[in-house]
Amino acid sequence: MSTVLYDAAGPRARNRYRLYGLLTTLAVVAVLAYVVWKFYDTGQFSGRKWSIFQYEQVQRTLLSGLGNTLKAAATGAVLALAFGVLFAFARLSDRAWVRVPAGLVVELFRALPVVVMIFLIYYGTLANAGSASTFWSVVIALTIYNGSVLAEVFRAGIAAVPRGQSEAAYAIGLRKSQVLRMILLPQAVRAMLPAIISQLVVLLKDTALGFLITYRELLTEARQLASYGEFEFPTIPVAIVVGAIYIVICLALSLVATWLERRNRERGRRRTADRNVQMGAGEPDAGA
Amino acid sequence: MRMRRMAVLAIAGALALSACGKDSEEEDAGAAPAPSAATGVTLEGSPTFDKMTSRGSVVIGVKEDQPNLGYKDPTTGEYSGFDISVAKYIASKLGFGEDKIEFKAVPSANRETAIQGGQIDYYVGTYSITDKRKEQVSFAGPYFIAGQDLLVRKDDNSITGPDTLDGKTVCSVTGSTPLQRIRDEYKGAKTIEFQKYSQCVDQMLSGQVDAITTDDAILLGYAAQQPDELKVVGKPFSEEKYGVGLPKDDKVLRDKVNDVIEEMETSGEWQRIYDATLGQSGSTATPPPLERY
Amino acid sequence: MLETLTDNWDLFVEAFRTTVLLLIVSGAISLVAGTLLGAMRVSPVPALRTAGTAYVTLLRNTPLTFVFFFVAFGFPRLDIRFSYFAFAVVALSAYTSAFVCEAVRSGINTVHVGQAEAARAIGMTFGQTLTQVVLPQALRAAVPPVMSVIIALAKNTTIASGFGVMEAGAIGATLNERGYPAFDAMIWVAVGFVIVVLPLSLTQRRLERAVVRSR
């Protein structure tokens, strides 16, 4: 797409681009060098700081943090998908008493910060019911927020399926629920898969909010390790290691989304692409 | 275990430093003599105790970032300190040996919720007894008297007490009484909240805050840990009575824990625990009188 | 329930003022930085494209909470010292600009190919094509997704409460400390957020319709 913005470069332009390229590279190298120098200057490469990772207990702590992160993300993902499908169907219902409340719920939950929801569930349920753990506070908050976003994604996906599909389905005598379930949803999911996966990346990233109620996920453990005085407060080493872990996991998921998106687009080109399908997925990626 | 360790190394990537996990450094400082568990303890009419017995273990809420008080060693995962020893002693008298104790780190702001929600059976972690808190939980004790003080950088002579805090940034943990007092009574000070004291210490050593305020017992623990960088001002300006936090309606358990604390104080066990932990900083203390209710 | 709000009205006002301030400052910075990043990503210079893509990919795949952690706890360790409010602005802007960039880029993609081709045909350079022909149209199409990003930013400001900034997300803990039920406090915070976010959502919807009509 970007190629239409400029002509193939002529000799003068090519030189100019080369100069800009060089300047950019220099700028990037300068920034990186500054960062490394800053790390070095403030003693971030000292052996004592990094030695914290040598301890088996510390490794186990990080690993259990990662396990808790993935556990919350996996549970939340499954529940959010179910929530999303349910509320997407509810919003497409013919009955106003189903459609309207479902719409309100989805709109409300999308307007609230996940942080506020986590606190609400944590303080609310713990004080009254007495058994919900930090794990469930995080999972439920992630479920209702991301589930609401996914409900909109599913709805947009269903709306983008060509009309003829549902008309044909009704014509062969399928009921509305069957049309939704057997004809529209599968097509919508395929078209929306990239958007769905990027929302799941958002969900995974948001598990880091668990630190607010001390759910012992990866970042909570990292913050704890970073403040140990015996290791000269290894904030930067811990941040580098934990940041790398987060980026690798999220990037892997994101790459799947990008790959699916490209495959969809190629298929779409072969058929007749409905641009609105891509446009409708505006909301995702908006989380923390 | 080996597989796990390799997985961590693979994920972290940057850990090329070593291929073997150290177990821990030899360090047994702060360990008090381990009490042996009482047998045949029964408490008629205590729902919390019933829960402990049916579970077969006791879950105790503690702090994990207060050296010499409630501290979790990052390299061994072991808890140690004055509060920990008190918690262990109480557990032993309730019939739970060290292997039947599960420590759970709960930060100040979440203490009431954790006790009310039954996530923990009781809480021992610099928990000041106040009337407001008594509306939500109940207290056995006090088992220790502390006073609010200030921790500053060693080379900082401008702060000599709470009256000299004008324009300074004071750090404490979210949901703690000391910070509220600074806000109410010394309005010239800027206040910053974090979830843990260790984060305040981190921020002070890196120059973002000027002083940390909380009970002297906690501050002395940090000063002892980094004597070249930190010092305690040493003019306590309040009195904090540390109690054992319990579910509000469990009077039976509260009376029992009060009995245990009394026994601990009269038998000399209290002094032994103190000397092995906080006493290492050179300070002395005597057990406070109980306030039963 | 109500007295939790009325007794602490000052706190609520003060905290939400900080929230809105965080939103406005970080929002403005993110819009500018994000548009620049978007321009980098469609530029003819490969190095600029790579740098832009690398930044966006990195930031989009990092939890915002982690960015906060790195800035608020990491920077002081590197002898970089600002107020916690400034740290929060840095973290929010660094993160949000990556999302603004993607929204702007999606806007650029909606501009018809013929527009850019016509601009080039009359001899415009890349810079002229972008700033005078493509971006004005692209930004209009990008408004709804950018608004989504800004709404997300409004909600994300609450994370600053964990990193030394007294804003709306911190009200619960503060009132808990004052002895009010934290749950009631959070209900009022939620109401406050609906009030902050609702106008943004309504504007977004109106603009969305306007964009669709203008096509």
From TrEMBL, chain A:
Subcellular location: Cell membrane
Residue ranges crossing the lipid bilayer per the database entry: 20-40, 72-90, 102-123, 135-154, 235-260
Main location: membrane
Membrane topology classification: Multi-pass membrane protein
Residue ranges of every copy of the ABC transmembrane type-1 domain listed in the record: 66-257
Swiss-Prot/TrEMBL keywords: Cell membrane, Membrane, Transmembrane, Transmembrane helix, Transport
Family from the record: Belongs to the binding-protein-dependent transport system permease family.
Designated name of the protein: Amino acid ABC transporter permease
Organism the protein comes from: Motilibacter deserti
TrEMBL record, chain B:
PROSITE patterns documented for this protein: PROKAR_LIPOPROTEIN
Keywords from the named record: Signal, Transport
Keyword Mitochondrion on entry: no
InterPro entries: Bact_solute-bind_prot3 (IPR051455), Solute-binding_3/MltF_N (IPR001638)
Solute-binding protein family 3/N-terminal domain mapped to chain residues: 57-281
Database matches in SMART domains: PBPb
UniProt xrefs under Pfam families: SBP_bac_3
Source superkingdom: Bacteria
Region annotated Disordered, chain positions: 25-52
Signal peptide: 1-21
Family: Belongs to the bacterial solute-binding protein 3 family.
Protein name as catalogued: Glutamate ABC transporter substrate-binding protein
From TrEMBL, chain C:
Keywords: Amino-acid transport, Cell membrane, Membrane, Transmembrane, Transmembrane helix, Transport
Localization in the cell: Cell membrane
Keyword Membrane: yes
SUPFAM superfamilies for the chain: MetI-like
All copies of domain ABC transmembrane type-1, residue ranges: 16-204
Membrane topology: Multi-pass membrane protein
Superkingdom assignment: Bacteria
Keyword Nucleus: no
Pfam families cross-referenced by the UniProt entry: BPD_transp_1 (PF00528)
Transmembrane region(s): 20-40, 52-76, 82-101, 185-203
Family: Belongs to the binding-protein-dependent transport system permease family. HisMQ subfamily.
Protein name, UniProt field: Amino acid ABC transporter permease
Source organism: Motilibacter deserti
